[in-house]
Amino acid sequence: MSNYIIKRMGLALLTLLGVSILIFTIINLAPGGPEVVMVGEDMDPALAERMRIRLGLHEPVYLRYFRWVTASLQGDFGYSFRTGHPVLPVVLHNLQRTLILTIGALVLSVVVSIVVGVVSAVKQYSLFDQVASLVAFMGISIANFWLGLMLMLVFGFHLGWLPISGSGTVGMESGTLAYYMDRARHLVLPVFALGFMRLAVLVRYARSGMLEVLQQDYVRTARAKGLTERVVIYKHALRNAMISVVTVIGLSIRFLVGGSVVIEEVFAYSGVGRLTASAVYDRDFPIVMAVCLMISVVVLAGNLLTDLAYALVDPRIRFD
Amino acid sequence: MSEETKISTVETREEASAVATINVWRMLRRFGRRRGALFGLGVLAVLVLATILAPYLTAHNPGEPNMTNRLAPPGGEHLFGTDNLGRDLFARTLFGARVSLTVGPLATAIALAIGLVVGCISGFYGGTVDLVLQRIVDVVMCMPAIFLILVIIAFVGPAISTTILVIGLVYWTAPSRIIRAEFLAMRDRDFVEAAKAVGMNEFRIIWRHILPNALPPLIVQTSLFIAQAILIEAALSYLGLGAQPPVPSWGNIMTDGGRVLHRAWWVATFPGIGLFLTVLSLNLVGDGLRDALDPKQQ
């Protein structure tokens, strides 16, 4: 068990190192180097030279990479090109809000998909199964931002049930119950729009996982020894079907964080995705680099947790 | 001895080709039985034709503003209504399809080409080469694709050509894993051993002997990859980082639509339906092909 975890952690650290090299390389591949991108191509050579020295660009590449990595590890991600403020607090603040959105969508998609997928599999070819499969198929084909716009149109503008954008009503006193309710109401539409495609994907996984398990010998044995159908399905089959779902939950984090970029734009929800999109317009590289590194940390942490969960759910992994 | 080997090869080859033909026909028949897949194929055919014939299908210029007729509701002269600059939405949606239907297949072609090369090398040589290549795949797969794409666009600047290239450069990992898995499954099979034993060079073994057998699972997934590429292109254009105005694309029409959503529902709705139908059809075709190839998986 501990061997397995140590191996996984080692791989994750190696991947993170690779990500840092990749990001650093792309940033330094820019024609003429980052300073040209910052100031423009027709800048005064003397100014360019001063800038290079100020940014430390006159040093060899490996030294710069090393400097960047050690500084990042100490929490120093530099200063935003545009605002001049330190990058870390801004990124962390936005990251926290993106994580709220992402975790909301993850919980929604996992819980609903397991229920729907299992019922679908148990009642295969029933009306419920057919409708669920159809909706799931449509779900994997719908663009999340368009779904967001349509939800906004129906529930925000026409029915007026939910706020259409932002992350909270301006001027509410923080810390009160009304404040948290207000924030939650602002999250409903973006969370649903973000989670729907994942939900659809996971329903298909849960359904086929459950169908496969239901055909196994041990399920037949359980039935043969006279256990009630409820015990067979929820105790014997469900637990084993979960294994296939657990493996995809980890993957889902990456897709959800990626999807949040557009969803945040649609709902004017200021998270890390919106921050990156605007930093890309402004060519604010310290922000872009910091966001990419932290997103990778989040995804890798999620994958590690999944591996752990996998080992807990499936004893075969532990003794490998 | 040599006589014997010869006979047996001929036999196996005939047998193999016989099996292959039966499979293709069976696949086509199975595919044809899936109503969803046929529906998808039909919708795609109509879409492709419509985009090619776009100038003949509408009298309106997709880029021509008409300030006296802004945000006209659907119906009458403007089938889908007009946008906030009075441009005909039907024409814009029709011409916008060109971006999606170009970027999707081209970006996928690049992704498949890279994935194919990496997958072949990784799966054929195995060992250290495989280990190193797979760690690179891990790195590319670790970050959500859109972030990697955004980093690259930050430098090169947004354009349709950039979009195609960047999507291709980021989405090669899944195809490479598919090809690698096929190669790993086949590298110790007798026909590969035989090819090695007669001293055939490696490139020929990979290209002529293993690859043709490894391709079907990839081909089956191609339409699913195109669907992914079309979705990501639309998202980039929606963010203003893909196709740039005045070129209409479904993504950037929806950006306009989002701004006037409270007054004119149609601007964001119609290009979105186009996008949905396209992706849905590609997924239906992909699903049909997968079932036809391997009916066990469902």
What does this entry look like structurally?
The complex is a heterodimer of chains A (320) and B (298). The longest helix of chain A is centred in the middle third of the chain and has 38 residues, at 177-214. Chain A has 320 residues and is mainly α. Chain A is globular. In chain A, 37% of the residues are buried. Chain A has helices spanning 2-29, 34-39, 45-54, 61-73, 87-122, 127-139, 144-158, 177-214, 217-224, 229-266, 272-282, 285-313, 315-318. Chain A has 2 domains: 2-73; 88-313, Orthogonal Bundle (MetI-like fold). Chain B is mostly helical. In chain B, 76% of the residues lie in helices and 0% in strands. Chain B has helices at residues 2-33, 35-52, 54-57, 89-125, 127-142, 145-156, 160-170, 173-186, 190-197, 202-238, 250-259, 266-293. The longest helix of chain B is centred in the middle third of the chain and has 37 residues, at 89-125. The radius of gyration of chain B is 24 Å and the shape is elongated. The model of chain B is unreliable at 1-21 (pLDDT under 50). The chains are: A mainly alpha (320), B mainly alpha (298). The interface between A and B is large, with 52 and 44 residues.
Largest sheet of chain B: none
Instruction: State the CATH topology of the largest domain in chain A.
Output: MetI-like fold
Element order of chain B: H for helix, E for strand: HHHHHHHHHHHH
State the end-to-end distance of chain B. 46 Å
Q: Give me the secondary-structure category of chain B.
A: mainly alpha
Structure annotation, total helices of chain B: 12
Global geometry of chain B: elongated
The CATH superfamily title of the largest domain in chain A: MetI-like
Looking at the overall shape, the CATH architecture of the largest domain in chain A is Orthogonal Bundle
Percentage of residues in DSSP E strands of chain B: under 5%
N-to-C SSE series of chain A?
HHHHHHHHHHHHH
Name its key features.
heterodimer, A: 320 residues, mainly alpha, MetI-like fold, 13 helices, 78% helix, B: 298 residues, elongated, disordered N terminus
